Amino acid sequence: MPAAVPNPLAVLHALGVAGVTAAEPALGGFDTAVWRVTAGGRGYALRLFHPWQEDRCRRETTIMSAAADRGAPVPRIHAEGRWEGRPALLMDWCPGRPLLAELIDRPERAHHLGSLFGAMQARIHAVPAPRGLGAEPWIDAAGPGGGDLRRRLGELHPRTDALLHLDYHFLNVLTDGARITGVIDWANARPGDPRADLARTMTILRLDVPSHLDLVPPRVAAVLPLFDLGWRSGYARAAGPGAVVDMPAFYAWAGAAMARDLAGRRSEAFFARVRAWTVRWSARAGCAAP
Hints:
Largest sheet: 5 strands, antiparallel
Radius of gyration: 20 Å
Shape: globular
CATH topology of the largest domain: Aminoglycoside 3'-phosphotransferase, Chain: A, domain 2
Number of strands: 10
Number of helices: 9
């Protein structure tokens, strides 16, 4: 028999949350259950993890707290606990809407929105990563092989101290049209080199987004190059000179990481494009493709 759908009111009761007037399922949360909750006249997000995701819940809590302490617009956590052996968090419901929705309605602002997107990513990279996260090192996301690429990345003296989101794209970044109001979904976050996070975003924008053009209106697809340009220029201005150098090896790493992350969830044609990307950037980095 299929598992019963969790009752959000029961979860909230277990967290000690009172005064709840509404709790509705929210979009998103591919591997966790998410509800939009109203309590005491305020909006919250209730997130329920699986029993085996306790370490992930703890890691995300630590990361979001560190980012919030440095002024990044991440959801603040108001309650945490367990319900029937499952970790649960009650967080702020961030204002605004996904940046993609704003881009769909106002494609003429693509460059400006991209600039906001890039500047916020640089702001996140200025946050020192919390110690002791117990997460897989970012470089391992490309899989166990690729010794030549690992050697090349090591020669570039990658940083190990910056906070990386590693799923930074325009569905996980919220805006009110004038500013970035929230950055969500920190499941992949790790300490590491900001260039890895930039490369990861680049592969999402250049490889994964085009594979979903059935979900993106043609007028948005037409302005994606302007968004891309705004992202890169906004990041460079905020991060300062010298922040984006020696990128080919990181682009190759991001291609290998994407192939591993999406294995079995995309078409053969998609993986052929990802492989071509990885081979091309590996050659430019002067190493063999993983």
